[in-house]
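To illustrate the input format used throughout this study, we show a single complete record. The first block contains the structure-token representation of the backbone; no residue identities are included at this stage. The design step must infer an amino acid for every position from geometry alone.
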């Protein structure tokens, strides 16, 4: 055999096997990373059964987030309002608008509208809205300037690195509690950092970074 093949050929099968394992590992790692929400969901904007404009309701009319998302201050979940909440206004405002026919029918029948959920986290991730908004984290930190959107889309990645960036340095995302739902509020970045640093100290914010914080 040695007359036909050089000695290094004896190592060739093992090298091919090791190379195959490394290549498979790199492909798996690439898919694992690039198929996270950072790359697959930012910009996600499904067609909803009823057109709803945050730009009109929040940006122009000044509707408070908590009027519709009633549980956000006391629950892990920012609930979607029932059709009856919509009809509190739309009995008088645009009561016969054809765009709201599904809302009117839903309010009468009690059958919920099939809204398409946009902001999703995996089942193994726990996130509590109440903890964040009650410590000065505004909706815009995770949802972007939703008050300017005529159709909701995923503005920011909800991948783990996004959460960790904030937990490692929460100050830039903290604001006075009376401004949490003022989505148009803004100040100079350096002032924001200084103010946020003060809030971290005064409110004794210790944003954890260990795995069980979110993975329960």
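Output of the design step:
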């Amino acid at each position: 055999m040695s007359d036909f093949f050089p000695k290094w050929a004896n190592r060739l099968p093992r090298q091919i096997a090791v190379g195959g394992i490394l290549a498979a590992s790199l492909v798996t790692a690439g898919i694992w990373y690039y198929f996270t929400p950072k790359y697959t969901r930012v910009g996600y904007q499904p067609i909803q059964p009823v057109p709803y404009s945050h730009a009109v309701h929040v940006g122009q009319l000044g509707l408070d987030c908590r009027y519709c998302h009633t549980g956000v201050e006391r629950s892990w979940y920012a609930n979607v309002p029932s059709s009856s909440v919509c009809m509190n206004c739309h009995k008088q405002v645009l009561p016969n608008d054809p765009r709201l026919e599904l809302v009117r029918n839903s309010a009468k029948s009690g059958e919920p509208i099939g809204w398409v959920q946009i902001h999703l986290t995996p089942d193994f991730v726990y996130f509590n809205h109440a903890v964040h908004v009650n410590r000065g984290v505004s909706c815009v930190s995770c949802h972007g300037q939703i008050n300017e959107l005529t159709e909701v889309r995923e503005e920011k990645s909800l991948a783990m690195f996004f959460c960790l960036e904030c937990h490692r340095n929460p100050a830039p995302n903290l604001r006075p509690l009376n401004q949490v739902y003022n989505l148009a509020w803004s100040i100079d970045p350096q002032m924001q950092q200084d103010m946020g640093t003060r809030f971290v100290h005064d409110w004794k914010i210790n944003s954890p970074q260990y795995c069980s914080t979110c993975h329960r």
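Structural context for interpreting the output: Residues 7-35 form one domain. Residues 36 and 195 are 32 Å apart (CA to CA).
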